[in-house]
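Quarterly update from the structural biology core.
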Amino acid sequence: MAQPFPLHQQDLESLREIRRNLDDLPGSDFFSSWDSTGADPCSSFAGVVCQPDVGGGLYQRVQSLNLGTGLAGSLGLTGSLSPALGNLTALLQLVVYPGNVSGDIPDSICNLQSLQYLEITSNSISGRIPACLENLQSLHTIDLGYNNLHGPIPANLSSSSMALRVLILTSNFLSGPLPNFDAQFFHIDIKKNLFTGFLPRFPASLRYLSASQNRLSGPLTNLVPLPQLSFLDMSMNDFNGSIPTALFSYDISSLLLQRNNLSGQIPSMSQRANLAAATVDLSHNNLTGELPVGLAGVENLFLNNNRFTGPVPVEFVNNVYGGSLKTLYLQHNYLTSFPVPPGGGAGLPESGSLCISYNCMDPPVRPPCPASAGKQQSRPVNQCPAYNG
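Predicted structure, tokenized:
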């Protein structure tokens, strides 16, 4: 039986150096296989996958390195990332699973010209995102979420010359304005950072966008056109102006714009089949006008804490009592009437949740509301010029 080719000496020395910089956290035994004397890394080291050298040499190269197990309950690793990572020049995938790895991402990682997938999540990585990552033209996915990174997103990291499709930078301390995203991304998650300024350009290929819990401001106009968008979360920022009409025409599963300074009316919609299974949260804004019947087909609808007026359309009532509209929050608006539901309101499904308190009416039904809605059922008369309670 033919013996497998040995690991390239450069890769072997790099793995040894990587090991010297990292340790198992107490309770983890990931490195036990690495510490066996004389073990072949390609067949014995946990997290190491090798392939024969594509250049025809009689040796193997490390193509995938997964540091840690990634299993639920695994404690992960501690230490820092060695610059020797940059010597694994045949590497296609580098993953550092959740643990307590700290320090900077070494610039030598930019020597990995074949790298396609980079994931270093839920550790204590600090410093800046290496600007030289823009030179990795094969890089498809970057996931650096849940670390302590600071500074801006490198300007050219999202240029049209990049192969990047997935960018996840969730829950860091990244700041500054956002660059234009000109690469053909389909997933961008930059929530829970300190980004400021207006929204940049996004590619028409985008399907998932989350930028919630930042300090972004200005209008939402750059969210149009994004015809492939299926998930949008821009909540908890400082956006203003009206909601672009096109957002209600996308085949979107979740539209989350709560806790901004959005104003104006929701566009009138006669058919909302695209949002039939969606969650729409527009709460805690300054939206006005009457409730559009087109939103009655949504599964979970949060319109509370706005300035909506007029009667609640009967379609909302029929759907929430029929069970297709599972959550309907309309509290803290200026709504003037709520149609008496079938059976007098006694038949709200157990899975349903309805709150209509603190409006300009005496509610015909009083289902339990969340504690944040307060105990007062109706607005004071002096706040309701058209009060009909």
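The first strand starts at residue 22 and ends at 24.
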